[in-house]
Amino acid sequence: MAENRVTGQEGRRVVSAGIRRALSAGDMVPGQRLVEQELSDTFHATRSSVREALQDLAAEGLVELVPRRGARVRVVSVEEAIQITECRATLEGLCARRAAELATPEERAELRAIGARMREAVAEGDLDGYSALNRQLHDFVARVSGQQVAQGLLERLNGQMVRFQFRLAMRPGRPSRSLPQHLAIIEAVDAADPDAAEAAARAHLDSVILELRATPPPTAG
Amino acid sequence: MAENRVTGQEGRRVVSAGIRRALSAGDMVPGQRLVEQELSDTFHATRSSVREALQDLAAEGLVELVPRRGARVRVVSVEEAIQITECRATLEGLCARRAAELATPEERAELRAIGARMREAVAEGDLDGYSALNRQLHDFVARVSGQQVAQGLLERLNGQMVRFQFRLAMRPGRPSRSLPQHLAIIEAVDAADPDAAEAAARAHLDSVILELRATPPPTAG
DNA sequence: TCCAACGAAATTGTTGACAATATCTCTGAC
DNA sequence: GTCAGAGATATTGTCAACAATTTCGTTGGA
């Protein structure tokens, strides 16, 4: 390959996106050391770009930056994951409430469509598809709510949970337990019932908390 | 003065703290341009330090960073301030609920003490004192709740509101309206009534939202 | 008087070299 | 066999010069 060294502005984006991807894919594990030189080699970026990218990731809580000791993938404990989910519960409750108040007829139809596809995915045992629809639903509700601040916070919090969400989705029977909860959110928003929508969103995430508590500590590798 | 140029690690802290202070004090106004050279002069820091500090502040949402055009103090619209307060309402609701569940007898006593001092401050027309107690109460509840994640988010959100909080506190009659709301939070937490505590915290911030809506757009300077 | 084009100044972005520190490795004594 | 210490290596932190870009002011023309 030719010397396609990515530089500056773009390098920063490339590196932070690359690390994010590696984190989601599990190619980088919590606690793993992130050496600037290595990263700049793998991503063909300058060390400056790597440095800035690491700062960005640290600001998002994905990476831990210890002075003079470099960067590590941040370790999120089960306890912290639970706290994160508690925050998500209230914030998604807010979004669901507002979505119920504000959604247009087209948006309500789209929601119902997502619900139908979720049913199918679970019926067919399509874990990946269901997982994707899951994200889609949460994003859609946040967007419809018009709560951009809450949406920003939720994105941030979700970013820190990738590892746990993966672990959760793999638990046997999880989809059939979460499906009715998702459908309850959809129905409440569709029915323009803010109180029910908020309650449904909260109930869903409260159940996630229960699953988290039942989760063995993540294997460090 | 001798050449006391602050450098590196520390410079970064000094500059970001200095800008934060200037922001609170109103010495820097939203939209104002932040030129790296000027900042490095005023804080006797290197341009590198200034750069890093600006990145930090941008990550916290206090500063807006436009490529090739430099940094500005971020402008928070009334609409955004309302959204921020809506998020605060749910998150402080969570904290109040947990505080009601978890507070030790000593912490409950401390809360009552804060309440008593608030009463006094309002009776004496001590605006600054009341404002300080206000912050103290919110911080205390967040701390007692053990919700460190929520606490972090709240700090972040509050940082973006400094300007508005200042404007609000100055409104005539504001203290006498907010005092009973604060006391309601204190009583509910003290009475170990989670539902009431959450409701009280939400009600308080809902009232802040009403005041925000009645606020004329901030004067740009 | 207004506008466009040009040039000068100001400002931000980038780089590579060097400095400071931490980590690892090897040796030798107990 | 283990541990302490010294040296070597690896890694991060800092800086100042240079490059690229934007912004501002000026000039000339319509």
From TrEMBL, chains A, B:
PROSITE patterns: HTH_GNTR (PS50949). Keywords: DNA-binding, Transcription, Transcription regulation. This is GntR family transcriptional regulator. Residues 9-76 form the HTH gntR-type domain. CDD domains: WHTH_GntR. It holds the Pfam family FCD. It comes from the Bacteria. SMART domains: FCD (SM00895), HTH_GNTR (SM00345).
